Amino acid sequence: MPICPALLNHPTTEYLMAMGLMDQFKAQRGFITYDFETLSDQVMKEITDQTILLSQLSKLLIASTEVYPNRDKSYELVNRCYTLFDELSENYQEQLENYGLPSNSSFVHLWLAQTFESAEQIYQCIKYDDENIPFDKCVKALGWNSSRFDIALLSDALDCELWTMGVPIRDLNNTKSITVTHKKSHMKLQFIDTENLFGPMILKACVKDYGDKSEHKDVFLYEIINSKNWNEVLMKTDPFEYEDFKSQLKEGYSITKDEYDQYLIDFKRFTKRLEYLKYYNINDTEIMVKPLMNLIDTFEQFNIDVLHYISIASCAYATKHYSTYFPSKFNLESNKQTYYSDFDITADYSNPNPKAKPFELTAGYWKNKCYHYKQQDYKAGRETEKNVTADDYDYYKRLFETSVCSICNAKFTYDNPPSLDRQDNELPHTKANCLPTCVTCNIAHANRDPKIASLHIKMRQYAIKHNLPMTISDERVYKLLRECITGGLAAVFLRENIAGKTHINELTYDEQQNKVISQDNENVVTHIFALDGNSLYPSSYSSVKNENIPYTDHRMYMAGRSKFYSENPYVIKNCIDQRKEIFVAKVKSYFPKSEYNNLLALPLIFRNIEIENKEEVIGEYMYSQAQKHSLPMSKKDRKLTTLVDTNGQFMVFNNYYLWLLIDLGFVITDYKAIAVFEKNAAYEPFVRTMMNLWIQSILSGSSKEKFYRLIINASYGYDTLNTEKFGKIKMLDKAGTFIAQYHPKHIGTRRISANTFAVQIKPKTATYFTSIQSGVFTLDNAKYWYLNYIQVHVQMS
Ligand SMILES: [Zn+2]
To answer: How far is the CA of 444 from the centre of ligand 1 (A)?
Structure first.
């Protein structure tokens, strides 16, 4: 499968692309922002012998801003605010009845009921006029830093007679997104944390850099207001005293004296404390609009719909892979480069790999196929008497050699094996009912609109033609790649150094005694030199030509689709020695002892090893501490460390990292496996564009700088994302939850409402739709850059 989530996991874009209507593409510009204000009740809780001050939060107010886009880039805003005071109002029951809500509903239910009605109107503004264009009936509700806090406050209102809550995305404690569906209108509200879109930054900074100059007041956490006195305290007409801003949780005041003076001036505009609170909460939801619009515009120029994604990482990941199909869209005026031509739905991409070996049908392969076709037909209740049989071998051998795919006109090769496609779906696999097609065309064709099927087929051919990454279908290759993933560089070096104080430490190896001696010398550290491994990621996956890379045409190519896998030591050794193919290889190896004194300052192998918690391994101090606190010591840990040999284990390296090690004296003793990949430089346009935007923002002194850096770095993270870990979340009732908790694959449970539980279960099968090969190459290429820099530029100077 080709990897392009921006097209293939997005029905609207997929449709527009397949029908040749991409000029109609528009990003969602209608949404809702919301914010909660809470009451905090302080409770003293006794946990073992310690007393802990906890703050229990309950809902006081919810404010929101609804954004209705116009046909041009302008939009209309509607503000709303519901509070606990509404529940006291005389016509509260009447208000509930207007929305068909039960009489015990809270003001948050009321807000949701109104928000569903507003979402319906926003949807009318954002959907396409052409009814055939699929467009999810879903409007996004965005809260600032809401994933833990606001979602928890909302959760008991998310399930009721009128609407129902879907499965939360990501794990149970940190909800990335949650969707609520209206039972009657089927309108969906998807709650997302805005922080996931901007990266970790405070609202103030975000508004300053992305928005206009609308003012933001930090939300005051009035610890003085609690569930007993809120009515009395907020109805007062005089401003709060400075003492009221004293915070026990923050151990001080939540605002400065100057900010308090400003508060007194602001307060004059309001008649009650409640009015002031309402005004600033509404304002806090409104000021999120500009930054979001800004973000939507940034990505719309690349045909990416930001609000389709729940985090900037997933958006960046989709954008990066989209760029490999449309490099010219990512070619900024300032640095026009020549790349391969864009994907074109009207172009003919058949036979993308002219070097592929023609397919030759063997009797065994054919017999096996016939057996499976018969099984398929039998299971579907189709008559199998006239089915193709092993006797038709000669006929089909010739047919596959002389004919082409009936769908895409491709020749059949070992890369692209044939299959029989039934023309009438009611009839079995007979000679008369079948035409030869590629296996992949056959799959793409199944139950799909022919134009969508054609898009999938052409994208696959395009991916083959340009050696783009495709999903790994060989489990052995997948496992090898998985093994190659270690943590980043930062985790390895955590030694404390103080400039002007710490003496330089030297390690020397005594070969005769087989001991390492650690000694501080008389020189004192004058400069702390930090190398941020993360900032290497752009160079690690950009494949830009650089004279510091002596291998493969002075580029570090990225891995495309899998080419072959082998466990033959001769084949593995040959690939390593010839330095032509790019690969990951699993080997045992070491640096000779004579090299140790050159290597001890920076051992070159950055890998995880299994560590036993023994005194001689972790040292006397750590060992005694662990014993003192009776920590479990029998467990083996996998730790990221730096080594001078592979510790007697087989370890996996990518070709660039391995070649550098070999050039520095690495000796391979044993060969286990190799996975070879096609080469590409497909991420170059993406990296150049984002680097350009990044540099522009640095020059203008904007903190958008952090945002672009985040896009460049986060886009790779999704490639290595281990989806196996996340598991499935099911919504169950009490009885179902009781049973599920005894299931061996049960991971966790969280109560959502009175009779609804979210139960997390380890999935039986996992599908990998990410480009794990790209992730692995990014990580190991970064190690190449880091070590090459130190070896060549620091140690030699
Ligand atoms: Zn085909």
So the answer is: 9
Task: Please tell me the distance between residue 455's alpha carbon and the centre of ligand 1 in angstroms.
Answer: 12
Residue 202 to residue 174: CA distance in whole angstroms: 18
437 CA to middle of ligand 1, Å? 5
Q: How far is the CA of 593 from the centre of ligand 1 (A)?
A: 56
Pair 476, 9: CB distance under 8 Å? no
CA distance 206 to 145: 12
With a CB cutoff of 8 Å and minimum separation 6, the contacts of 1 are 8, 460, 470, 471, 769
Residue 78: strand pairing partners: 66
Give the Å distance between the CA of 142 and the centre of ligand 1: 43
Helices of type H across 667-733: 684-699, 704-720, 723-726
Q: How many angstroms separate the alpha carbon of residue 338 from the centre of ligand 1?
A: 30
Please tell me what DSSP assigns to residue 156.
G
Report the pLDDT averaged over residues 121-131.
94
The 3-class secondary structure across 554-618, one letter per residue, is HCCCEEEEEEEEECCHHHHHHHHHHCCCEEEEEEEEECCHHHHHHHCCCCCEEEEEEEECCHHHH
Instruction: Give, rounded to a whole angstrom, the gap between the first and last alpha carbons of the chain.
Output: 48
> Which amino acid does the sequence have at 600?
L
Report the largest interatomic distance among the alpha carbons of the chain, rounded to a whole angstrom.
96
Tell me the three-class secondary structure of 433-487, residue by residue: CEEEEEHHHHHHHCCCCHHHHHHHHHHHHHHHHCCCCECCCCHHHHHHHHHHCCC
**Minimum mean pLDDT range among 393-402, 507-516, 526-535, 717-726:** 717-726
Residue 354 Cα, ligand 1 centroid: separation in angstroms? 15
**Cα 344 to middle of ligand 1, angstroms:** 17
User: What percent of the chain clears pLDDT 70, i.e. is strictly above it?
Assistant: 85
- What spacing in Å lies between the alpha carbon of 466 and ligand 1's midpoint? 18
Q: Which residues surround ligand 1, an ion (CB under 5 A)?
A: 405, 407-408, 410, 438, 441
**Rounded CA gap, 398 and 407, in Å?**
19
Cα 347 from chain centre = 32
Compute, in angstroms, the gap from residue 17 CA to the centroid of ligand 1: 19
